[in-house]
Design brief:
It comes from Datura stramonium (Jimsonweed). With 258 residues, the protein is an alpha+beta fold. The protein contains three helices and ten strands. Strand 1 and strand 2 form a beta hairpin.
Length: 258
C-alpha cells in the first residue's frame, strides 16, 4: 500500500518590516546640527546654479531733458523780448527827438609860423584854424567836455596839434571856433622835399583829425559821455608863413563811439 504523501506546510518567509524614515534628526542629544544642514535634504535638492543678473539698458532721464529744453526756450523768449523792448525804445526816441548828426567844416586857415632850423632837421609850425560846428537838432544839446585833441597831418607826419575849448552848444546852434595849433617836427629834410614838389603843383593835401569827448542833453537829462571823431581832408595851395592860404577842397567825415 502506497504511502500516503504527507503535505507539510511550508512556512512563509518572514517579511522584513519597512524601514521607517527617521522623523527626528540623527544628531545626538547635546550636539548641534551641522552647518551644511540635513544631509537627506541636501541629496534631494538640486545643485545650485550660478545665474548672471539681467540689467535692463539705461534710458536717459526724460524729466531732466525736458527741464533743460524748457529753460532754453524761456531764455530765448526773454532774449527776443528784450530785443523788442530795446527796438521799441529806440524807435520812440527817434520819432520823438529826431536826432541828427552834427556838421563840421574848416572855413579858413592861416599859418603864422612855418620855419626850419639851420640844418633843416626841425620844423616849427603854428596854424590858426577856423572851424564851424553846427548842431541841427531841435531837442538835443551838446556839451563839449575837456580832453579834446586836434592835429594837422601832412604825408603821415604830424605838423601841429591843439584842443577845443569847453562849451555848451544849444539847439540848432552854429558856433565858429578859432583855434591855434602848434608843434615841431624832427627829421624834416624829406618832408621839405615832398612839400616843395606839392607846392609846385599848387595842391598840398592836409588831414585834420579831431577827438572830442561830449555829453548829449535831452530835455533836462544829461546822458553819458560819448566821443566825437572828425576827419577832414583839405587841399590847400601853399604852406607859407604870413600868406593867405586858399582851401580848395574841404571834406569832413563824422563818427562817434562810447
Amino acid at each position: 500500500m502506497a504511502d500516503h504523501q504527507r503535505i507539510h506546510p511550508v512556512p512563509e518567509p518572514e517579511q522584513e518590516p519597512p524601514v521607517q524614515k527617521p522623523t527626528v534628526p540623527l544628531v545626538p542629544r547635546g550636539s548641534f546640527r551641522s552647518e551644511k544642514g540635513d544631509p537627506e535634504k541636501q541629496q534631494q535638492e538640486p545643485p545650485l546654479r550660478r545665474t548672471i543678473p539681467y540689467y535692463p539698458p539705461l534710458k536717459p532721464p526724460k524729466k531732466r531733458c525736458c527741464s533743460c529744453k524748457r529753460c532754453l526756450c524761456c531764455t530765448c523768449c526773454l532774449f527776443f523780448l528784450l530785443i523788442i523792448i530795446i527796438g521799441a525804445l529806440a524807435a520812440a526816441f527817434y520819432f520823438v527827438f529826431q536826432p541828427k548828426i552834427p556838421n563840421y567844416s574848416v572855413d579858413s586857415m592861416r599859418i603864422t609860423q612855418f620855419n626850419f632850423n639851420t640844418d633843416m632837421s626841425l620844423l616849427f609850425a603854428t596854424f590858426n584854424v577856423n572851424i564851424t560846428a553846427r548842431n541841427p537838432n531841435k531837442k538835443i544839446g551838446i556839451y563839449y567836455e575837456s580832453g579834446s585833441h586836434l592835429s594837422v597831418w601832412y604825408t603821415g607826419v604830424k605838423l601841429c596839434e591843439g584842443s577845443l575849448p569847453r562849451f555848451y552848444q544849444g539847439h540848432q546852434n552854429t558856433t565858429v571856433l578859432s583855434l591855434n595849433l602848434s608843434g615841431q617836427t624832427q627829421n624834416a629834410t624829406e618832408l621839405l622835399q615832398a612839400l616843395q614838389v606839392d607846392q609846385q603843383r599848387g595842391s598840398i593835401p592836409l588831414n585834420l583829425r579831431a577827438k572830442v569827448p561830449v555829453k548829449l542833453k535831452i530835455g533836462k537829462l544829461k546822458l553819458m559821455k560819448w566821443k566825437f571823431l572828425v576827419k577832414c581832408r583839405l587841399d590847400v595851395d601853399s604852406l607859407s608863413a604870413n600868406n593867405a592860404i586858399r582851401i580848395r577842397n574841404n571834406d569832413c567825415k563824422f563818427s562817434f563811439k562810447l
